[in-house]
Specification:
By secondary structure, the protein is an alpha+beta fold. It folds into five domains: 162 residues, Beta Polymerase, domain 2, CATH 3.30.460.10; 153 residues, Four Helix Bundle (Hemerythrin (Met), subunit A); 104 residues, Hydrophobic Seed Protein (Orthogonal Bundle), CATH 1.10.110.30; 156 residues, no CATH class; 223 residues, no CATH class. 56% of the residues lie in helices and 11% in strands. The strands form three sheets. Strands 9, 10, 11, 12, 13, 14, 15, 16 and 17 form a nine-stranded antiparallel beta sheet that branches. The chain has a four-stranded mixed beta sheet with strand order 3-2-1-4, sandwiched between helices. Strands 5-6-7-8 form a four-stranded mixed beta sheet. Strand 16 and strand 17 form a beta hairpin. Helix 2 packs antiparallel against helix 3 and helix 28 crosses helix 31.
C-alpha cells in the first residue's frame, strides 16, 4: 500500500479544487438554464462519488480493513450545491487508529468540501444505532462507495437484526420526532420565512415517509409503494411534484447564498421569485405569487405525509383494528377514527362530503379520519359542483357545522386540507396559500381566516373570558354564532383581486349567504360586517376617541347594538389572528373604550344622553373632592387645569388627575420639572398600559429628546399628548409599552425612566448625531419610502399629519426634530406599528397654535418631511 504521508506532496490539491469548481459552475449554469433539478442533485452526488472514490483508492487501495460509505442524504444520492457530504469510514483492527484516516479527512477539508464524517467499527455502528434513532436512520441510507465488500456485508448483518429498531418502535420514534419538529414551527406550514427542510410540509416530511416505509416495507421507492397500494397515483404525483419544487427552491437558495441555506428569508424569496420568472400582476407581487406556489406545495406534501402516517399507524401500531361502532347509516368509528360504511357513500350521497365534518364536530370522542376515508374524500371532491353548493341540505349542514360545540376551527382546517372548503367556497380556494409580503401579516389569508374562527370560538369558552372581558360583554347580543363565523370566513376573501377587498368581499359574502337561504336581515348583517370589518380598529387607533364628534360619527355608521357586538368580536379576533404580537394592553384599552362609548351613544334614547362633557365634569367634581382632602384648594386645582388647557381632566381618569394635579401643585412655584410614571388601567385587568408624564419648562426639542431617550431604553411610545400652558410649562404625556407590548411593572425600571428623562430635561444634549439602535435583519429587508399627508385645519385650527413609512428606531425623535425646524407645533401623536411599517398620526398646528392653511407652506412641510425621513432611512443599516 502506498504511504499517504509520502505521497501527499504529489497530490495535485490545486487541480482537485479546480475540478470541483468547474463541476459546481457547470451545475449552477445548468440549473439557471432550466435543467430539471432532479437530474442535478443526482449529478452532483455522482460527481462526488467518483471524486471520493479516486482519493480513497489513493489512500486505501485494496485494503480489506476499511470501507467508505455515503450516509444520510448523500447516501440517498441527493446532493445540493452546499449539502453536507456525510461519510462513514468503517474500519476494523489496527486501522482504527491509523494516521491515514486523519490525513484522508484533512485532505477533504482542505478541498473545502462540506464533510460530515464518523469513523466507526461495525460494533460501534450497531451500538450507536441502538441508542439513537437518528444514527439508525442515517445508517439505513448507507451506500458503499469504495473499500471492503466484506465489511459492508458485516454491517448489513449487524443492522438488519429484527431486534434493532423493529418497525413499530421505529415508527413511534420517527412520528414523535416529526411532532417535535413541527411544534418548533408552531405546527404551521405558512411561516413568514419557512425552512424548506425542517418546516411542516418541508423536505424532512418527505424523507420521513421514506424512512418509515423502508423500515417496515423494505422500500422507499414511490413507484413500489404505489404497487403495494400504500400510495395512490395522485399522492405519488403530489409527492414527486412537491419534492421537485422544494429541491428547486433549496438548490437556488444554496447558489444565491453561496453556502448551505435552507431558511427561505425575505431577501431570497424576492431573488428566487425573480430568477424563476414570476412577475407582478392581478394585485399580487411576484414574490407573493412565488410564495403562494410554495405554500400550496407544502400544504399538499403535508397532507400526503399525514395520510401515509395515519395509514402506517393503522397498519403498524394497531394491526388488527377493533370492531367498528356505527354512528349513522353512512359513518362508523373504529379505534377513535371515523370512516365510511362503504366506499360508494360519497358517490351515492354527495352531501355526505359535508356531513362527515358535522358528525365529527358533534362527537368529541372522534379523534380523526381513517386514511382510507381521507383518500376517498380527496378523490370525491369533483362531486362538489354548483348543484352541490346550492343544495339546501348541504347549506344547512354547513351552518350546523358552524354552530357545533367542538373544535369548529379544526374541522374547517380539515376541510381546507382535504380540498373540500376551497371547492365549496371557490373564492376561499383562490386565497389558499396567498400571503402578503410584509411582517404584519404572519399567516397566509386562508390560515389567518381559520385562526380568526379559532379566536371567535374562544370568546365563548369560560377559560378565556378574563382575556377579553369587553368582548364577553358583547356576547349577550350575539345570538347566532354562525353569522359571526361567516363574517370571519369572508372578511378577507377578496384579497389579491385589486381594489378594496372589503367592498369586493361584501359582494361575495352576500351571494353566499343568499345561497345558504339566510334571511335578509342575517345576510345584511354578515355582508355589513365584511364591508366594515376594519372600521372599529381604524377609528380606535387613528382617531381621537375622546372627541364626541368622532364617537357620534362612528355610532352613526354602526347603527345598532347588534352590529356593534358582532363587530367588536370580529375586530378583536382579526387583530389577534393577524399577528398575536399586535394585541396588547393599549390596543385593548382603545378598542374597549370605543366599544363602550359607542354602546352608550347607541343606548342614549333609552338610558339618557351621556357625552364627553358630562364625563369630564364628573372627573373634575370627584377630583376636587379628593384634592381638597389632600390640602389642594379648588381654586389652585382649577388654575392648574386651566393652564394645562384641560388636558389633565379630558384625557385622564380621576385617580391619575388627582396624582398629577398634586405633583404640579408642589412644583409649580419653583417651576421644578418632574416625571411621573403611572398605570393606565381600564375596567379589565387586560386593559393596561404605562403613562409617562413630563412636567417641564417649554423649550425646542423637548419632545424629540424625550422620545429619543425612551427609544434608547427600548420602550415603545404608542401615544403622546403635548400641551404647553399659558405659563410656558409643558404638560406632556407618553403612553409606553415594553418590547413585548406589556406595561412597565418593575419599580426599578420605572425609577430609571424618571431619572433618565429628568437628566435629559435638565441637561439637554448638545447638537450631535442621534444614537440609533441597530435594527433586526427582517426590518432591513423592507424599505418603504415615506408617505406624508397633511390635512386642512379643523374647526379648532389643528391639522392631521399622517406618516406611513418603514419602522426604524429613532423615527419619532426625528419627526420631533423636523417639526421644530419647520416651526410646527405638535399636540398629539398616535403611533401604530404594523409589522415592518408605522402608520402614525400627528395632530399639529403652526407656532403658537396658528392654523396651517397656506397651501404652499403645507406642501413645503410634506416635501421636507418626506425628503429628510427618506434620507434617514438610507443611513440606517
Amino acid at each position: 500500500m502506498k504511504n499517504p504521508i509520502q505521497e501527499l506532496p504529489n497530490v495535485q490539491l490545486a487541480e482537485f479544487k479546480r475540478r470541483i469548481a468547474r463541476a459546481d459552475e457547470a451545475l449552477a449554469h445548468r440549473f439557471w438554464k432550466g435543467v430539471p433539478v432532479d437530474q442535478l442533485v443526482h449529478s452532483r452526488s455522482n460527481f462526488i462519488d467518483g471524486f471520493l472514490t479516486e482519493i480513497w483508492q489513493h489512500w486505501f487501495d485494496q485494503n480489506e480493513s476499511a470501507a467508505l460509505f455515503a450516509v444520510g442524504g448523500y447516501g440517498r444520492g441527493e446532493l445540493h450545491p452546499h449539502s453536507d457530504i456525510d461519510l462513514l469510514l468503517l474500519v476494523e483492527g489496527r486501522l482504527q487508529t491509523d494516521i491515514r484516516l486523519e490525513e484522508f479527512i484533512r485532505l477533504l477539508w482542505d478541498l473545502n468540501l462540506d464533510i460530515g464524517q464518523s469513523v466507526r467499527s461495525v460494533r460501534d455502528c450497531r451500538e450507536e444505532a441502538r441508542k439513537d434513532v437518528s444514527v439508525m436512520t442515517s445508517l439505513m441510507e448507507r451506500r458503499l462507495l469504495a473499500g471492503s465488500n466484506g465489511l459492508s456485508v458485516k454491517l448489513d448483518r449487524a443492522l438488519n437484526s429484527r431486534w434493532l429498531w423493529p418497525s413499530k418502535e421505529f415508527f413511534a420514534a420517527k412520528s414523535s420526532e416529526q411532532d417535535a419538529r413541527h411544534s418548533q414551527w408552531s405546527d404551521v406550514e405558512y411561516g413568514l420565512e419557512p425552512d424548506v427542510k425542517q418546516s411542516p410540509g418541508g423536505l424532512r416530511d418527505v424523507q420521513t415517509i421514506g424512512w418509515i416505509t423502508e423500515r417496515h416495507f423494505g422500500t422507499s421507492s414511490v413507484d413500489k409503494l404505489c404497487k403495494l397500494g400504500l400510495l395512490t397515483h395522485q399522492e405519488r404525483d403530489t409527492y414527486l411534484e412537491g419534492r421537485s419544487f422544494l429541491w428547486k427552491v433549496r438548490f437556488a437558495l444554496h447558489l444565491l447564498a453561496g453556502r448551505s441555506q435552507d431558511h427561505l428569508v425575505f431577501d431570497f424569496q424576492r431573488q428566487i421569485a425573480d430568477r424563476f420568472g414570476y412577475f407582478e400582476s392581478d394585485g399580487l407581487l411576484a414574490v407573493e405569487k412565488f410564495m403562494r406556489d410554495y405554500y400550496r406545495h407544502v400544504l399538499e406534501l403535508r397532507e400526503v405525509n399525514d395520510i401515509l402516517l395515519q395509514h402506517f399507524k393503522e397498519e403498524i401500531l394497531h394491526g388488527g383494528s377493533r370492531k367498528a361502532r356505527p354512528l349513522n347509516e353512512r359513518f362508523q368509528m373504529r379505534d377513535g377514527y371515523i370512516e365510511v360504511i362503504h366506499d360508494k357513500i360519497f358517490e351515492e350521497q354527495p352531501v355526505a362530503l359535508m356531513e362527515i365534518f358535522v358528525v365529527m364536530a358533534n362527537h368529541k370522542e372522534i379523534t380523526g379520519v381513517r386514511a382510507s376515508t381521507i383518500r376517498l374524500i380527496r378523490k370525491s371532491v369533483y362531486l362538489i359542483d354548483e348543484d352541490f353548493r346550492r343544495n339546501p341540505t348541504v347549506g344547512q349542514l354547513f351552518l350546523n357545522l358552524l354552530r357545533s360545540p367542538y373544535t369548529v376551527a379544526s374541522h374547517l382546517t380539515r376541510m381546507r386540507r382535504y380540498g373540500i372548503l376551497g371547492r365549496y367556497i371557490p373564492a376561499f380556494g383562490r386565497v389558499i396559500g396567498q400571503m402578503q409580503h410584509d411582517l404584519f401579516h404572519i399567516y397566509t389569508v386562508d390560515a389567518h381566516t381559520i385562526m380568526i374562527i379559532r379566536y371567535l370560538r374562544r370568546f365563548f369558552m369560560s377559560r378565556y373570558r378574563n382575556d377579553f372581558p369587553f368582548v364577553v360583554e358583547a356576547l349577550a347580543h350575539i345570538t347566532k354564532v354562525e353569522l359571526l363565523f361567516l363574517a370571519g370566513l369572508f372578511h378577507d376573501i377578496a384579497k389579491g383581486r385589486g381594489g378594496d377587498h372589503s367592498e369586493l368581499g361584501e359582494i361575495v359574502a352576500k351571494e353566499f349567504c343568499e345561497n345558504l337561504g339566510l334571511s335578509t336581515e342575517d345576510t345584511e348583517l354578515v355582508s355589513w360586517l365584511v364591508k366594515h370589518h376594519l372600521a372599529l380598529s381604524t377609528t380606535a387607533q387613528k382617531k381621537d376617541i375622546d372627541d364626541s364628534r368622532v364617537l357620534e360619527k362612528f355610532a352613526s355608521l354602526v347603527g345598532n347594538e347588534r352590529r356593534l357586538s358582532y363587530l367588536v368580536a370580529l375586530t378583536v379576533a382579526d387583530i389577534n389572528a393577524t399577528n398575536p404580537d399586535l394585541w396588547n394592553g393599549w390596543r385593548a384599552t382603545l378598542i374597549s373604550k370605543l366599544y363602550r362609548s359607542t354602546r352608550t351613544i347607541i343606548r342614549a334614547p333609552q338610558e339618557g344622553e351621556t357625552d364627553s362633557v358630562n364625563q369630564i365634569n364628573d372627573i373634575c367634581s370627584k377630583s376636587l373632592q379628593l384634592l381638597e382632602s389632600h390640602g389642594v384648594s379648588a381654586q389652585s386645582a382649577e388654575s392648574i387645569w386651566t393652564d394645562a388647557r384641560n388636558s389633565l381632566t379630558a384625557h385622564q381618569d380621576t385617580l391619575l388627575t388627582v396624582e398629577l394635579t398634586e405633583a404640579i401643585h408642589k412644583n409649580q412655584d419653583q417651576r421644578t420639572p418632574f416625571v411621573l410614571v403611572q398605570d393606565i388601567e381600564g375596567p379589565a385587568k387586560s386593559e393596561r398600559a404605562t403613562q409617562v408624564f413630563v412636567y417641564a419648562e417649554n423649550r425646542p426639542m423637548l419632545f424629540a429628546h424625550c422620545v429619543s431617550t425612551l427609544d434608547q431604553m427600548q420602550l415603545q411610545v404608542v401615544n403622546a399628548r403635548i400641551e404647553t400652558g399659558i405659563s410656558q410649562m409643558c404638560y406632556n404625556s407618553f403612553v409606553v409599552l415594553d418590547t413585548h407590548g406589556k406595561p412597565i411593572e418593575d419599580d426599578l425600571e420605572r425609577k430609571r425612566i424618571s431619572e433618565k428623562l429628568l437628566t435629559v430635561i435638565r441637561e439637554p444634549p448638545r447638537l450631535q448625531k442621534r444614537r440609533v439602535r441597530r435594527i433586526s435583519r427582517q426590518l432591513t429587508q423592507f424599505v418603504r419610502p415615506a408617505n406624508v399627508t397633511l390635512s386642512l385645519p379643523n374647526d379648532e385650527g389643528k391639522s392631521t399629519l399622517e406618516l406611513i413609512v418603514s419602522d426604524r428606531p429613532g423615527l419619532l425623535a426625528l419627526v420631533g426634530e423636523i417639526f421644530v425646524d419647520l416651526h410646527v407645533e405638535l399636540h398629539e401623536a398616535r403611533i401604530a406599528t404594523l409589522g415592518e411599517r408605522v402608520e402614525d398620526i400627528f395632530v399639529v398646528s403652526g407656532s403658537g397654535g396658528q392654523p396651517l392653511n397656506d397651501s404652499l407652506r403645507m406642501q413645503s412641510i410634506v416635501n421636507t418631511m418626506t425628503t429628510r425621513i427618506d434620507e434617514a432611512l438610507k443611513s440606517v443599516a
